[in-house]
Design brief:
The structure is a single chain. It is globular, with a radius of gyration of 13 Å. It has 1 helix and 5 strands, in the order βββαββ. It is of the alpha+beta class. Helix content is 19%, strand content 43%. β2 and β3 form a beta hairpin. A 5-stranded antiparallel beta sheet has the order 1-2-3-5-4, covered by helices on one side.
Length: 90
């Protein structure tokens, strides 16, 4: 049974955390050959445009801070089959 909704480029997916807005998975980015963390917006929110916008704004704010000490680097922001996700360093 598939427990996530990630694009096929992310392999060896393992659930590592659950938060208020969604789940975090550890995965291998097969195109770049590195381990990443992928935060996926919970399915219950995928029809709520306001929450989807807040989720994307979170990613953009984090991306602006990428490279700062004690801040993860954002590698990608996207949507797969209507479910938004944020890819960051693990």
């Amino acid at each position: 049974m598939r427990t996530h909704n990630l694009p096929p480029r992310y392999a060896d997916v393992e659930h590592v955390a659950r938060g208020g807005m969604g789940d975090v998975f550890r995965a291998t980015d097969t195109e770049l050959g590195r381990t990443v963390a992928v935060k996926v917006l919970a399915e219950r929110y995928t029809d709520d445009e306001d929450i989807k916008r807040r989720f994307k704004n979170e990613a953009l704010a984090a991306a602006r801070l990428s490279g700062a000490p004690s801040t993860v680097t954002i590698f990608d922001v996207g949507e797969n089959e209507g479910q938004p996700f944020i890819v960051m360093e693990f």
